[in-house]
Fold:
Amino acid sequence: MKIILMGPPGSGKGTQASYIASFAGVNSVSSGDLFRDNLARDTELGRLAKTYMDQGKYVPDNVTIDMVMSWIEAPANKEGFVLDGFPRTLMQAEALDDRLSELGGVDKVILFNVPEVELVKRLSGRILCRKCQMPFHKEFSPPKNDGECDKCGGELFQRDDDTEVVVRKRLKVYTEETDPVVDWYRKTTNIVEIDGSQEIRDVEASLNEALR
Structure:
């Protein structure tokens, strides 16, 4: 199966990507994974992407598409794949569909829907250990001792991009970029919408039904 996962930051698609991949018997990857891998291996695409990143510029869609297709066309992924959070723009979606046309196109798009108020709560509550980077959440998984990491005792802090103001801006940008992508897939592909605000077990049950 060739599956695309969509959903705003904090919707749980990253958490569910490995579960879906295991269910479908394929591998999963996110665009972030691909960038890190290509940079670490110092590939030609990685070096090209780095030239833009070092200048603080957006990596062009064609470079990202080439990275994705290189991974998709690897022998290990010949049976299918799960793409986590990609494509993110309409141009990426159109280019991906064009490149996948000879492989039968995308089989299913799974869209995780979560109310904005819940997303803000999930994202703005995240805190990290400065020393070991272990993640916590103020409400859902707080540390045993306030401000102190359970693992190493390091100081806990909140990243600048996890504050409520920044989170709301990130969600606004996501919506503006991806609404056209969702509309595109509603016209061209079998898209299934999942209530990502449910308990994890209920989300998995919904996914089982969608993938069956």
